[in-house]
Specification:
This protein is α/β, with parallel strands linked by helices. About 30% of the residues lie in helices and about 30% in strands. It contains four helices and seven strands, in the order E-H-E-E-H-H-H-E-E-E-E. Helix 1 packs across helix 3. The chain starts with 9 loop residues before the first strand and ends with a strand.
């Protein structure tokens, strides 16, 4: 899973969240999330184009994010809008690997490109038994 292919990424049309500190960016990301949450009856979800309009839930995203350092949280929250766009619209196949920590899960990594040409990755965890999908994280792809 260490190697992420850089070919055939999704070209994001929306921009990164603007802000100078975690509090500012966090408010904007939470406002976007509240809008998604408002459109759903129970648990917040978005429908994925790649997974044939199946629901992708946010159950683990905020917990996973809060395990990171402040600086890392800020950079990942900036990607919130483009990550949502990739999940909703990308039909490009992800890099899929069984989770080494849990054999009942598959990790899917979708690659995207921002307007200014920077690569990022959106990670979705799939529960093999139930078939549920969960948005885990979004992060920059390091250039090697």
């Amino acid at each position: 899973m260490n190697k992420i292919p850089k070919e055939n990424p999704y070209l994001a049309k929306s921009g990164l969240l603007k802000g100078t500190n975690l509090k500012e960016i966090g408010k904007k990301a939470m406002a976007e999330f509240r809008e998604i949450e408002r459109r759903t009856k129970r648990k917040a979800y978005i429908k994925s184009a790649y997974f044939n309009k199946q629901k992708v839930f946010f159950d683990y995203f905020w917990d996973h994010l809060n395990q990171k350092r402040k600086r890392e949280r800020k950079t990942r929250l900036k990607l919130f809008n483009v990550a949502i766009e990739v999940i909703k619209n990308s039909k490009n196949p992800p890099v899929s690997v069984d989770n080494p920590a849990n054999r009942n899960e598959t990790l899917h990594r979708f690659i995207g490109v921002t307007k200014n040409g920077k690569l990022f990755c959106v990670q979705i965890k799939e529960d093999k038994k139930k078939g549920n999908k969960y948005f885990m994280s979004a992060f920059w792809v390091k250039n090697k």
